[in-house]
Fold this sequence. Notes:
By secondary structure, the chain is mostly helical. About 80% of the residues lie in helices and about 0% in strands. The protein has helices at about 5-20, 25-35, 40-60, 70-95, 105-115, 115-125, 135-150, 155-165, 170-195, 200-225, 230-249. Helix 4 (about 70-95) packs across helix 7. It is globular, with a radius of gyration of 17 Å. The two termini are about 25 Å apart.
Amino acid sequence: MTPLEIAAIFVAGLWAGTINTIVGSGSLITFPTLLAFGFSPLTANVSNTVGLVPGSASGSVGYRHELAGQTQRAIWLGASSIAGGLTGALLLLAYPGAFAAIVPVLIGVALILVAAGPWLSRRLAEHRHAEAHRSWPLAILFYATAIYGGYFGAGMGIVMIALLTIFVPDTLQRLNGLKNVLAVLINGVAAVIFVFVAPVRWDVAVTIAAGSIVGGQIGAGVGRKLPPSVLRGAIIAVGLVAEARLLLG
């Protein structure tokens, strides 16, 4: 890569790491950047996934205080996340273009759920039990979300936040911290598969990783200070931008 390409990919990784930690959809920055520099879609996708895992881990560390007391949630939903991430990675290698048509629909539905999250959460409150995070519907929906995440993942964080706010009674900040941990598991298991059987460009992956690690810390620093209403608004705003970019190509 040329120095200009390295600089551009590093900055894209930094922004992606920041946005992933606060909201999600960071791949909509890094993936098009790699395509613009001439990388094939498959190489760009797998290299991007490998590169963004350290950024998600960095964001999780930044949210460590919000993760206190969420071990059981992380274990229960982590199992679904790992299984789905593995499934999605294998689907990408077998059918590289399978999800392209449904991504805008998926993000659009997720945005509606995020906006309606407080209302839906109140409506479901009387039907929840003490271990709401152990509901099988949530586990199944997380498995489906993780399949998409292992396959491509742009907007995955928005979908996860939507599901968590509806099914799990807790603050948005704590659920965002949990979202970051689960994103590490989904992308991490996919990255392991890609390392062994996919055309990863290591110079690209390492450059994205360096930027996303810094971005993860920036995102945690900013995201943890946002009031719930502002954080929810940021999620919706980024999602709308992502939706527009996908629909307009």
